[in-house]
């Protein structure tokens, strides 16, 4: 029997659950006049096509037609039923739930009780860690904070920093005896680690500085511990629990949110002590990730606090920091390209991180650098040129190739033109005429490259459905034919099929990779030559695992797993000759990409203004430059030079057609299988 909710409760939820606040938790919204716009999550949106009206408390997508109030949005987005969404919004907005049915209400109360118990345990632990820091046992750690970190007692107290003594079970003993807390509850909090097969346990944090981690309501949900004796890992976080999910929290967000709103800018740094150091200098609009790469949800949290979506990333200047910065950019690239966020990058020169910088320089000097931080596109371009000597032919070619690939992503022609001029000047090294030539060449290359960008104009409607079918077939073979999993991954790489294009297939494939990584460890694909690991990899029960993983982490696409849960007889029949059928699906998938490229090349080829042989002869006569005895060769060379782009597109087109012909052979069963 479903939950019965009183109409008064439903009405109160509708009144108090502000639609902008609800949607902005999942979608980055940008103010446009009296309304907000954002990337629609209900279709593969390439530009902000969803409008959210605060006045009407209504959202609408002009592309796919999705629309409704805050309750409708969450039902569609989370795939939860009406009652669950209303209960969730009621809880979040502190609304009293009237006449909810007994079973549901009891379950709800039990869940709340369990969570409250965890909050209570962590409060006890936080106070105990603080007590240890201020005792003789914590004198070394306290002196480290004062002398090495240059923190004041006020800052130490503000962040409620603590210390975990180098003892096996002191915290466990305290929580059990003084707090009168159960062993199971303490274990669920992540503060202790249980020895397998025994009732014995020991403290997770030992001989570490302790940094409490708070949620947005300023409740302790976890701890971070920094080692003081050089032991690894240097930083250790609490495991995830019912109240702690790394991907949904930002360190110090509870303290920073009001200041971010006031200054209309959020600074993201890499570590706890970077935030604490900045905070101690009066810079309070800063947060840090929790040992994981920032995701869209966390970015959305920050964007809700800044009207103009101003975000500055200031990660460590070492290689790991640069990689992490690039990872964030890739995560929010689409939002940035469509001006949904104003993303800037600050990379400190001569200092590893903000903490080190502030120990050498003033807060004002740091803020000046923040104001002068590079726009993310400029930073990415600097990375392309980094450590490259463009006077050398090989470095020059690498830079040009990277520039073409990157600049082709920019959707707005005016922005592309701006950066084309910028990089051309850089490539020319101050030679104005050469800069113009470089700009022309880059523009032509970008035009040839943008065929596989975000534009779908070269894709026919019937191909979309067929491509979806082929992608689902490949995933099906991967799940049901374990011995072919390595072969499938190799084929995808060799055919340059960069993942799947259908959104729910992307999620399923990424989920499969996550399951495999959890089972086999990081970089498992590079280590599959190891016989034992290979066996472990093949024996993963992906059919059950993917069903459970999707229902837990991506319930919105559960209905898309039909081909996994209940495959039809036709699909099952193809398993009799899996490899041949698989190659057919792979070939078709590659063929769609090639056909799109052909259509683009035809358009690009036809757009070129050709110079005829007569024009070439005329140019040579007018220039009076012919000194060669072989005039025909000279004319031919000039013809090729003047029509180089058209000839390039022509050659590429015929090469692509040849490739399609070979794919058709594979698809029709003429492919020589290497068994």
How is this structure best summarized?
By secondary structure, this protein is α+β, with helices and mostly antiparallel strands.
Keywords:
globular, DNA Primase, Chain A, alpha+beta, disordered C terminus, Dna Topoisomerase Vi A Subunit, Chain: A, domain 2, DNA primase DNAg catalytic core, N-terminal domain
Would you write up a description of this structure?
By secondary structure, this protein is of the alpha+beta class. The protein folds into 5 domains: 92 residues, Zinc finger, CHC2-typedomain (DNA Primase, Chain A); 140 residues, DNA primase, catalytic core, N-terminal domain (DNA primase DNAg catalytic core, N-terminal domain, Alpha-Beta Complex), CATH 3.90.980.10; 135 residues, 3-Layer(aba) Sandwich (Dna Topoisomerase Vi A Subunit, Chain: A, domain 2), CATH 3.40.1360.10; 66 residues, no CATH class; 80 residues. It has 30 helices and 16 strands. The chain has a 5-stranded antiparallel β-sheet. The chain has a 5-stranded mixed β-sheet with strand order 13-12-14-15-16, with helices on both faces. Helix 13 links the parallel strand 14 and strand 15. Helix 28 packs across helix 29. The longest helix has 32 residues. It is globular. It starts with 6 loop residues before the first helix and ends in an 8-residue tail after the last helix.
């Amino acid at each position: 029997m479903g939950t019965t909710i009183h109409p008064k409760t439903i009405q109160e939820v509708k009144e108090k659950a502000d639609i902008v606040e609800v949607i902005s938790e999942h979608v980055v919204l940008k103010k446009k006049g009296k309304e907000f716009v954002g990337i629609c999550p209900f279709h593969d949106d390439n530009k902000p096509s969803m409008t959210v009206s605060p006045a009407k408390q209504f959202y609408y997508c002009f592309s796919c037609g999705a629309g409704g109030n805050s309750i409708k949005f969450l039902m569609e987005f989370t795939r939860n039923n009406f009652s669950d969404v209303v209960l969730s919004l009621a809880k979040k907005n502190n609304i009293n739930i009237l006449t909810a049915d007994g079973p549901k209400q009891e379950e709800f109360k039990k869940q709340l009780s369990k969570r409250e118990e965890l909050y209570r345990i962590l409060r006890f632990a936080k106070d105990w860690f603080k007590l240890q820091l201020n005792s003789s046992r914590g004198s070394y750690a306290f002196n480290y904070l004062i002398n090495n970190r240059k923190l004041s007692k006020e800052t130490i107290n503000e962040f409620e920093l603590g210390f975990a003594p180098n003892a096996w079970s002191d915290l466990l003993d305290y929580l059990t005896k003084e707090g009168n807390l159960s062993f199971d509850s303490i274990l669920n909090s992540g503060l202790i680690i249980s020895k397998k097969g025994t009732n014995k346990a020991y403290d997770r944090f030992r001989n570490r500085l302790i940094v409490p981690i708070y949620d947005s309501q300023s409740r302790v949900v976890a701890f971070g511990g920094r080692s003081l004796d050089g032991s690894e890992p240097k930083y250790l976080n609490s495991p995830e629990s019912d109240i702690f999910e790394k991907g949904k929290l930002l360190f110090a967000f509870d303290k920073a949110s009001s200041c971010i709103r006031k200054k209309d800018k959020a600074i993201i740094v890499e570590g706890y002590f970077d935030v604490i150091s900045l905070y101690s200098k009066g810079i309070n609009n800063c947060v840090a990730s929790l040992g994981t790469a920032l995701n869209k949800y966390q970015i959305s949290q920050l964007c809700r606090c800044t009207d103009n979506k101003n975000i500055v990333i200031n990660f460590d200047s070492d290689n790991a920091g640069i990689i992490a910065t690039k990872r964030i950019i890739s995560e929010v690239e689409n939002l940035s390209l469509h001006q949904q966020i104003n993303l800037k990058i600050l990379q400190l020169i001569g200092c590893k991180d903000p903490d080190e910088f502030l120990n050498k320089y003033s807060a004002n000097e740091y803020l000046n650098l923040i104001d002068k931080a590079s726009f993310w596109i400029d930073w990415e371009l600097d990375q392309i040129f980094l450590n490259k000597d463009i006077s050398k032919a090989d470095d020059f070619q690498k830079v040009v190739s990277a520039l073409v690939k990157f600049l082709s992503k920019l959707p707005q022609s005016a922005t592309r033109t701006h950066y084309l001029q910028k990089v051309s000047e850089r490539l020319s090294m101050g030679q104005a005429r050469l800069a113009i030539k470089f700009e022309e060449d880059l523009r032509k290359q970008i035009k040839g490259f943008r065929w596989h960008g975000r534009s779908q104009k070269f894709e026919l409607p019937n191909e979309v459905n067929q491509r979806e079918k082929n992608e689902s077939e490949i995933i099906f073979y991967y799940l049901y034919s374990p011995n072919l999993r390595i072969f499938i991954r190799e084929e995808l790489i060799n055919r340059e099929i960069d993942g799947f294009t259908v959104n729910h297939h992307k999620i399923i494939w990424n989920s499969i990779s996550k399951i495999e990584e959890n089972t086999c460890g990081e970089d498992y694909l590079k280590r599959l030559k190891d016989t034992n690991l290979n066996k472990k990899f093949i024996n993963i029960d992906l059919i059950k695992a993917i069903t459970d993983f999707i229902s837990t982490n991506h319930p919105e696409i559960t209905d898309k797993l039909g081909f996994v849960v209940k495959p039809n007889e036709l699909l099952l029949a193809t398993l009799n000759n899996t490899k041949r059928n698989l190659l057919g699906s792979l070939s078709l998938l590659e063929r769609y990409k090639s056909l799109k490229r052909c259509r683009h090349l035809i358009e690009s080829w036809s757009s070129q203004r050709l110079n005829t042989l007569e024009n070439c002869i005329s140019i040579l006569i007018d220039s009076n430059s012919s000194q060669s005895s072989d005039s025909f060769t000279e004319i031919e060379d000039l013809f090729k030079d003047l029509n180089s782009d058209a000839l390039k597109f022509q050659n590429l087109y015929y090469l692509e057609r040849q490739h399609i012909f070979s794919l058709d052979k594979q698809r029709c069963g003429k492919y020589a299988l290497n068994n």
